[in-house]
Design brief:
- The chain is 21% helix and 18% strand.
- It is built from three helices and seven strands.
- The strands form three sheets. The protein has a three-stranded parallel beta sheet, covered by helices on one side. It has a two-stranded antiparallel sheet with strand order 2-3. Strands 6-7 form a two-stranded antiparallel sheet.
Length: 146
């Protein structure tokens, strides 16, 4: 049985879905209060190579992470509508509309939504506690790895 999320995940391989998501958020941005965010599943390659794209999905969707020019004020910077913010850097900030790209760290297995921490970028600092726990209890089953 396919869940709504699993159908969405299958569709994400079609980058036109993400292009439509970004276009819809851009249309709602007349008051500079609409943004696109994603979990930290893609490396921040544009930090060292400014011409590179960080989030590349399919053949058409290419965006850069935020924070490069405006730092922590990215969410209020008008040009940040062209970037993707990290879900961690927007917590507690006000926007009217938000589009969320679900990365490979959230999957559907046997009809259940399961997180896959290993699918996050290796530089994601929110994984420190998780990595410590995995090292301390390597025998503990990790159902998402099955």
């Amino acid at each position: 049985m396919k869940t709504r999320l699993s159908r969405i995940r299958e569709s994400i391989s079609d980058s036109s879905i993400l292009g439509a998501l970004h276009a819809a958020i851009e249309q709602k941005n007349s008051t500079n209060a609409a943004r696109v965010v994603a979990g930290y599943c893609w490396p921040w390659t544009s930090k060292k190579s400014p011409q590179s794209f960080d989030i590349v999905i399919g053949s058409d969707y290419r965006r850069r992470w935020n924070l490069d020019v405006d730092g922590s004020l990215w969410i209020v910077a008008p040009n940040s509508i062209n970037e993707v913010g990290c879900i961690h850097t927007c917590q507690g900030l006000e926007v009217e509309y938000i589009g969320v790209i679900i990365g490979p760290d959230l999957i559907v297995r046997d009809g259940e939504v399961v997180t896959v921490p290993e699918a996050r970028d290796r530089h994601d600092k929110t994984l420190r506690g998780y990595k410590t726990q995995v090292k301390a209890t390597p025998e503990k089953p990790r159902p998402w790895l099955l």
